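Working notes for the structural subgroup meeting. M.R. asked for a predicted model of this chain before we commit to crystallization trials. I am recording the input and output together here so anyone reviewing the notebook later can reproduce the run.

Input as submitted:
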Amino acid sequence: MNERRVPAVNLESVTKVYGQGSPILGDLSVSIAPGEFVSIIGPSGCGKSTLLKLVAGLSPVTSGTIAVDGMTPVNAREITSFIFQDPTLLPWRTVRKNVGLGLELEGVTRERQESTVDSLLALVGLEHVADSYPRQLSGGMKMRVSIARALASNPRVLLMDEPFAALDEMTRDHMNEELARLYKEREWTVLFVTHSVAEAVFLSSRILVLAPHPGRLAHDIAIDLPGERTAETRRSEEFDRLVARVSRSLREVGRT
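Returned structure, recorded in token form:
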């Protein structure tokens, strides 16, 4: 008999209310398998960022349950990393020191810190700016430093809240391609919030479309683009078809 795999992330009837206000999320249930790249899209105010914070254990659910690899979100923090829209780099620390900050705080030996940071800088293509400061970096470089820092803890679940929203279109496309490459190499489970349908289609194996008032699952769309995700992917008929389909779903929930 095959053993049933524990979902990487599992939400059961999750609701979230802040204070005496209206529910932000209402009776949301979804299961995400290990290794899935799941984008979350929907109108402003539908609870996308709130959902990530709940999974990260940064805010408690009002009712329902969340499990991350079978653990509570708080207990799963060691296997979870959160990447925000703002890279939040420390301006007085070099790229190398920013990437190694978490390892330093954990008391990891200097030798292991240096080895881990070197490998991560190579992974994101930033070895040549290891001793530079954030003020000397482009927006795309700063975001790659943020990604490298998040990967230092060797996470199994990666939560990303509109990480490329502030970048220009060309840099954003390049960062999407870099993220697709890293995802294929590392095989994380990713929850990725974005307002860009094209970005969601390019990166994802699955897209969740949330409807607002309160936030709830309206559509669950499989993205079955063949082959590796590269710049050529965006020029394919299948990519255009999926973008159109997801856009229609988004317009539907926008009218609710």
